[in-house]
Please model this.
Amino acid sequence: MTIALLTLLHILIPVYWLGGDLGAFYGSSFMVDPKRTVPERMLALKILNDIDMAPRTALILALPTGFTLAATKGWLAVSPLLVALVWVVALVWLALAWAVHLSHGGGSSWTRPTDLAIRYVVIVGTFGTAIASLAGLIDIPLFIALKLIALGICICLGLFIRMLLAPLGPAIVSMKTDGPSPQSDAAIAGVISRTRPAVLAIWVAVLAASYFGIAMPL
Model:
């Protein structure tokens, strides 16, 4: 029963991740549509930001659910204390991510930097563990190493998308304050357009990780 519930929970990670990403991807088309009124476009932005928390939550929970499942099935020889520690860190990270979201991307002076710091630590940890495994320095199943690489890639792409989205805020403020203009419309559309290849790359990485988890342990 425990393994079944853990497996279900881990399977739901890519479901909500890809589903939320698809909703945000579709919602962005309304935000960049110059035929829509400013209130409509602002509502589309709010819906997009809210829906986007599904994949952000899924990303954070991917590691503890997968780690727990691997430990329970005997793929990783780790102590229950380490499993508990991973969950504590993940839940703290999740709380920080939601705090940043609920404060409209701002948050206190430490929540956003701490969230970013955790992401960088997880990137180093996932890639470092995977490389050590592939080099034969530690004993981890190949499919888990590949899934760690996929997760690290997703986090890197997420940070890259954040960087690409930086000019969006001023363009949105300009549209909301002064009304839409060809310049603000072009700026908003350009930012969204530049993020889409990275979003599609995340989808590929999530699907690859899902395939590794289903096919390789058999």
User: Anything to note?
Assistant: DSSP finds eight helices and no strands in the chain.
